[in-house]
Design brief:
The complex is a heterodimer of chains A (94) and B (216). By secondary structure, chain A is mostly helical. Chain A is built from four helices and no strands. Chain A has one domain. With 216 residues, chain B is α/β, with parallel strands linked by helices. The chains are: A mainly alpha (94), B alpha/beta (216).
Chain lengths: 94, 216
Amino acid sequence: MGVHWRFLRLHLKAFITCNMVCIPFLWMSPYILLVLFCKIVGYISIYLVTRPLNSRYDYYFKNLGYSIAGLFLGIALTDFLAFIILFIPLRLIF
Amino acid sequence: MLEIDSVSLIFWGHSVLSGCYLNCAKGEIVGLLGRNGSGKSSLLKIIFGSLKADFKHLRIGGRIIPTGYLTGQIAYLPQQHFMLPFLKVSEIIETFSPFIKEHLLAEEILTISMESRLNDLSNGQQRFLECLWILSRDAKYILLDEPFSAIAPIQIEFLQKMIVETGRDKAVILTDHIYRPLLAVSSRVVLLHNNAVYNIKSADDLVIYNYIPDVA
């Protein structure tokens, strides 16, 4: 029904905006662990900011057997893994 | 079988539910009645997992379940609208079970355009579609909180038929203050009163427990 896609798109916008703003700052950081810590803080912030928008999907997704927090965690983990795979090797090389 | 017992729920120092027991087996439709504030909706939310009880013992097929909805075996119709307002009527009907879809279209129950979006519909029409969507889920246990509220009589009659049909191979628990349609579809009726669940044999029992007025 496109509901999953709409939910994903809402978060992709937030994640892309956050990545575009943060990556230049993170690039300048001398410590990779600090960079990863900042990413996790960023995820918590996105979750809190998008929570009012997510609440309208709450019962819909619960009736399909999964929670909003679980879905968010899935998207955040994908972003985090993509970040580690793409960002850290580049950061170590340059 | 779905069973819940030893439920304890306290709101602001006031005990809403305390030690009540409810069960529902496949092929059974349990009507849950009770006055406002007796804890019917809270009990359904606790079973579904959207409300955390202070204590509960929920079992499905003898297995203890911490959060009902995560099993994918429970579907729940909440009192408030929950379907996403941007969805088109045709998109929602597409996801109905073949039986419901076939009867809905054949009996011309809906008098709205298939291209309308949910937020263009009246309160009752939205409620009707949401209730049918819940009845169409794959879940083995269906919880309906006030399915008949705000719905037109012709749609109530249709819903009753669909609930009875769904109840043949699923377990249904429903609660509503519009008690006549509820009594008509329920295979067993229970009343939540003073933190206890009473089995109701006839409408006279509801008078005894002061749930409905004595008209005789």
